[in-house]
Write the structure tokens for this entry.
Amino acid sequence: MSNDHLYQQIHADPRFQALVSKRGRFAWGLAVLMLAAYFAFILVIAFDPQLLGTPLSAGSVTTWGMPIGLGLIFMSFILTGVYVQRANGEFDRLTREILDEVQA
């Protein structure tokens, strides 16, 4: 069986189309979530900078901006981990099932 025929079979498989759609929606959803968090942070900096400049406690030199900024960085790592977990689990399993069926 030629590679072109194999690719056409895979592309025509409705489960493949569903997988591509589901994976795309999931990835875009995570991306929008991360972008919204960054955008909200930038909006707070632009319109209420004293909020992030407020010390965590009386006499503290650390402001609320530091833990919130670090939280955004950690959020990006966590969302990447969520995507990798799902990609290595559900998405890889579905891909393997489609390939096994087409190659059989």
